[in-house]
Amino acid sequence: MLLSAQFLALTNWSPEDQMANATAIYCLAQQIGQIVGTSGSTAALQQLFRLRLGANLTGTPNSTKIIQKILQNYWYIEELPHALRRVVQFSYIEAFRLVPALSTTMAVITGIIVSFT
């Protein structure tokens, strides 16, 4: 709905001779935003997962090596004892829950910046 409102405002306020350029730039910005958003979310999820693993595996022998192996190959958790496997799964769920909050925060900040410029 927001994208429709943006497009309607764009077509309403753009000069007739600039309509094609405005529409093309609008579509390009949407596509770039989708690509950057997807890539950024994936990178944020991986980084948050790494941080949560580090925090939750504190005190575990060879935790750095375990974290590296998990990040290289997620199926490595099948080789871990059940207790460690649960910690890894919990760490992933924690990281996964934080990504939407991070995205929402960034959207609000961007909205504020755009509103006041």
Order of helices and strands: HHHH
Number of domains: 1
- Portion in strands: under 5%
Mean pLDDT: 88
Helix content: over 70%
Q: Spans with pLDDT under 50 lasting ≥5 residues?
A: none
Structural class: mainly alpha
Q: How many strands, which pairing sense, and closed or not: the largest β-sheet?
A: none
Number of β-strand runs: 0
Specify the overall morphology: elongated
Question: Over all CA atoms, what is the radius of gyration?
Answer: 21 Å
Number of helices: 4
- Please report the distance between the alpha carbons of the first and last residues: 23 Å
- What kind of oligomer do you see? single chain
Jot down its keywords.
about 0% strand, about 120 residues
Helix and strand arrangement:
Layout: H1 2-13, H2 19-56, H3 63-72, H4 82-115
Helix pairs in contact: 2-3, 2-4
Structural overview:
80% of the residues lie in helices and 0% in strands. It has four helices and no strands. The longest helix has 38 residues. The chain has one domain. It is mainly alpha-helical.
Task: Describe the structure concisely.
By secondary structure, the protein is mostly helical. Helices cover about 80% and strands about 0% of the residues.
